[in-house]
Amino acid sequence: MTEQQRRLVLIRHAQAEGLTHEDRSRALTGRGRRDAVEAGLWLAGHDVVPDHVFVSSASRTVDTWESLVRGLRSGAAEVTVEDALYSAEPETVLDVLRTAPIDARVVALVGHNPAVAYLAHILDDGHADPVAFREMSEGYPTAAVTVLEVPVSWSDLDIGTARVAAFHVGRG
């Protein structure tokens, strides 16, 4: 990663309970917690530790982040829980990401599909790591993580301004 290089980590929440009367309050299953911890271990092992995180206000996304932190073994990130990320369109998610602090080097987003998967695809500049892009294109399951290299400022983040560098599915 160069001095100007930033990284964006897009994370789909881990496995949650089945549908309930209140979707926003669905918690993670035991498997979901394990998968999120494993995803955090993978990120830490690749030296991708967020310093700023945007998290949807849904219980399952907040739980995912808390479990990821256990795997990362770092709780130093500044966390913004954002209501606008719950059931957000990709454009809304992009607007939220553009508000990241100017000095943030690694920004993460814990959100929902289809917005997270779609955003991972449209941000890519066409020069993705071929293995990561193929795996990501085959499906974006729960606890999926995409790491993108971002050579522009957060406020300039837009379609085709990043590069998919890695993809991983947490399975603990």
Give a topology summary:
Layout: E1 6-12, H1 30-45, E2 52-56, H2 59-72, E3 78-82, H3 90-97, E4 106-111, H4 115-123, H5 130-137, E5 144-150, E6 163-169
Parallel strand pairs: 1-4, 2-3, 2-4
Antiparallel strand pairs: 1-5, 5-6
Describe this structure in words.
This protein is of the alpha/beta class. The chain has one domain: Phosphoglycerate mutase-like (Rossmann fold, 3-Layer(aba) Sandwich). 32% of the residues lie in helices and 22% in strands. It contains five helices and six strands, in the order E-H-E-H-E-H-E-H-H-E-E. Strands 3-2-4-1-5-6 form a six-stranded mixed sheet, sandwiched between helices. Strand 2, helix 2 (59-72) and strand 3 (78-82) form a beta-alpha-beta unit. Helix 1 crosses helix 2 (59-72). It is globular, with a radius of gyration of 14 Å. The model has no long low-confidence stretch (mean pLDDT 94).
